[in-house]
Amino acid sequence: MKAARFLVTSAVAVLCLVSFLPGQDKYFLDLTEPGSTAPPESSGFGCGPRLGGGSEDRGPVQPIALLVLETASFDKTAYALGEEMVCQIRLRNAGAKPVPIPWSADSRYRNKDCSGAVKDPARAVLDATFGLHLVTDSGLKRVVPLVSLYGRMANPETFRLLKAGESATVKFRARLYFVEAGPTESGAGTLHLPQIFVATVTCNLDDTSLRNPYQTLKSDNEVRLTLTEAPR
Description:
Shape: elongated
Largest sheet: 7 strands, mixed
Number of strands: 15
CATH architecture: Sandwich
Distance between the termini: 45 Å
CATH superfamily: Immunoglobulins
Oligomer: single chain
Number of domains: 1
Order of helices and strands: EEEEEEEEEEEEEEE
Low-confidence stretches: 1-23, 39-56
Structural class: mainly beta
């Protein structure tokens, strides 16, 4: 099954959005509903800001050919900085073996032990962090954090087992704030708004029962979004 594609033309500013319906997927998680997310924890545990979790001594990332970040859609084609956007992302299992994915936005289920792999798969912790990567035609790059999901294999309500050919869609809200890219990634020049960006969604998935975290997933479609300054 080929992933749906987006077509944007700057002349008419039309974005062909894919219609996401719960019936199209094995699983559908709507985090835009009231009470669907939990407040972040105030305690300072966790594996730090590095996406994908895990500790450095777990070794290099491993390929993840089984999961495909198939599509991503947004509710509009243009946003102002600080504006809330609604995004939908779909993960599809293109392999032959089931893959567990986290299914809770409650950060209390996050990985609190960064000492390495959990030997017992029944005690494994799953983390998935999604980000929006924006690139201008001149090469300037910015990152927008989107949403994080957590799961524990000991708690069936916090994860889903995605079997071969099955897909799962997550719908969520995110506030559009830039996280500056590193000096070697940001490109040359100063960013001025309004600006048109090529946008892709990434997913960093970690399963602590595995020796290494997965390599970063990148959505197979690109969307052009116009960003403007926040209204004064």
